[in-house]
C-alpha cells in the first residue's frame, strides 16, 4: 500500500510499504480522509519535534513513520480479541496511545499517561491507503456524520477539551487568541455551545477567514495597554475565558490582561520557547492559567454535536488533495503559512 513516510525535516516520501499483520486487539481502517495537522507540519519543517529518534517507550516504533492522526474511514479487518468494532463500521480515531494501566488511564485521564503517544507520531498513521490502530482508538461515527467531517473529530475534540477546562458559564464571552486550525475549531465549538466568541488575530487573512465563518474579530492594534483596553471594552469588562491558541510569547503574555477578574486563561498552543510571565497579573486579579493537552473521551461528544446539526467541521476545509500529491502539499503549506485552515488528504485507487 502507499504511505506518506516522514524520514526527517523537509523529507516526506510517498512509498510503497507492506501491510502489517493485525494484532489481536487491533483493527484495520481503510482511510477515507486524513487531515494535515499543525503538528505534522512542525515535523516537516523542523522535526523531530514529537517524533522520537529512538524506539518509542510504548510502541517500540522509530522513524521512518507514516504521518497522520486526524482521519476517518471504514473498518476492513478486526483482531481476534476485538469486541464492539466490526468490519464495515465507519470510524474516526481517538489518536491518543496509552498504557491502559496507570492511574491516569484507569481514571479516564488517559491524556496524562506518562507512556503515551500519538498515532502518526509514535506509530504509523493514516496518511496512507489504510492504517492499523488499537481497537480502543476506534470511535464509531453516527450515520449523520460524513466521513470528511469524521476526519476532523480529533482537532475539534482538542477544542472541546480546552473549553471544558475553562468552564465558561452559559452565554459567556470567550476570546480566542490565534485563528489557526485549532483556534478556528475552538471558535466553532464555542459558538455551537452558545458562547459569545471574539477572535483576536494579527494576521489579516486569518481575521478575514474568521469573519467569513461568521465570527466577530478584533485587531489588537497599538501598544499592549491600548489593545488590551479595546478588547476588554469589546467583552464588557473582560472575557470569561481566553483560549490561547497561537503558542506565541506575545499571545500568552497578552492573554493575562484580557479576562475579567477571577477568569481563566487556557493555553492550547504549544510555545516554541520558554516564556516568563508576570505572576502578579494572575494573583492580583485571581486569574487562573491552565494547560489543555489533547482530550479525554471527547470525540464521541463532537460526533454527537455534528449529528445534531449544531457543528460542521467541513466549514474549515479549504482543499481536498489526493494522497499522491501529499508531499507537494506539505511543501506548499510550509511556503504559504496561514493560507489554509484545514487541508484533507484523500487516498484514491492506486
From TrEMBL:
Enoyl reductase (ER) domain mapped to chain residues: 8-345
GO molecular function: oxidoreductase activity; zinc ion binding
Swiss-Prot/TrEMBL cofactor(s): Zn(2+)
Keywords tagged on the record: Metal-binding, Oxidoreductase, Zinc
Source domain of life: Bacteria
Stored SMART domains: PKS_ER
UniProt entry tagged with the keyword Metal-binding: yes
Family classification: Belongs to the zinc-containing alcohol dehydrogenase family.
PANTHER family in UniProt: GALACTITOL 1-PHOSPHATE 5-DEHYDROGENASE, SORBITOL DEHYDROGENASE
Protein name: (R,R)-butanediol dehydrogenase / meso-butanediol dehydrogenase / diacetyl reductase
Organism per entry: Jatrophihabitans endophyticus
Amino acid at each position: 500500500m502507499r504511505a506518506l513516510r516522514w524520514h526527517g525535516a523537509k523529507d516526506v516520501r510517498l512509498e510503497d510499504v507492506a501491510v502489517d499483520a493485525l494484532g489481536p486487539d487491533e483493527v484495520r481502517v481503510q482511510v477515507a480522509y486524513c487531515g494535515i495537522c499543525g503538528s505534522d507540519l512542525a515535523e516537516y519543517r523542523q522535526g523531530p519535534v514529537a517524533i522520537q529518534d529512538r524506539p518509542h517507550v510504548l510502541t517500540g516504533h522509530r522513524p521512518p513513520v507514516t504521518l497522520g492522526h486526524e482521519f476517518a474511514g471504514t473498518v476492513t479487518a478486526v483482531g481476534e480479541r476485538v469486541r464492539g468494532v466490526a468490519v464495515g463500521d465507519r470510524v474516526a480515531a481517538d489518536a491518543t496511545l496509552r498504557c491502559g494501566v496507570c492511574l491516569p488511564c484507569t481514571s479516564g485521564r488517559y491524556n496524562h499517561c506518562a507512556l503515551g503517544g500519538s498515532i502518526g507520531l509514535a506509530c504509523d498513521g493514516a496518511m496512507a491507503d489504510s492504517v492499523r490502530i488499537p481497537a480502543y482508538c476506534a470511535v464509531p461515527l453516527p450515520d449523520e456524520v460524513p466521513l470528511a467531517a469524521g476526519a476532523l473529530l480529533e482537532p475539534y475534540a482538542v477544542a472541546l477539551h480546552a473549553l471544558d477546562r475553562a468552564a465558561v458559564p452559559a452565554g459567556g464571552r470567550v476570546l480566542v487568541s490565534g485563528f489557526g486550525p485549532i483556534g478556528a475549531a475552538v471558535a466553532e465549538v464555542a459558538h455551537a455551545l452558545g458562547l459569545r466568541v471574539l477572535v483576536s488575530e494579527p494576521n489579516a487573512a486569518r481575521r478575514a477567514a474568521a469573519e467569513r465563518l461568521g465570527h466577530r474579530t478584533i485587531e489588537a492594534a497599538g501598544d499592549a495597554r491600548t489593545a488590551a483596553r479595546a478588547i476588554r471594552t469589546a467583552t464588557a469588562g473582560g472575557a470569561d475565558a481566553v483560549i490561547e491558541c497561537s503558542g506565541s510569547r506575545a499571545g500568552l503574555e497578552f492573554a493575562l490582561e484580557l479576562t475579567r477578574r477571577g477568569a481563566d486563561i487556557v493555553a492550547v498552543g504549544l510555545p516554541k520557547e520558554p516564556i516568563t510571565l508576570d505572576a502578579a497579573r494572575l494573583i492580583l486579579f485571581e486569574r487562573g492559567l491552565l494547560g489543555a493537552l489533547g482530550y479525554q473521551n471527547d470525540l464521541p461528544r463532537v460526533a454527537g454535536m455534528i449529528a445534531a446539526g449544531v457543528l460542521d467541521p467541513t466549514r474549515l476545509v479549504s482543499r481536498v488533495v489526493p494522497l499522491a500529491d501529499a508531499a507537494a502539499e506539505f511543501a506548499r503549506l510550509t511556503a504559504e503559512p496561514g493560507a489554509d485552515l484545514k487541508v484533507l488528504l484523500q487516498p484514491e485507487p492506486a
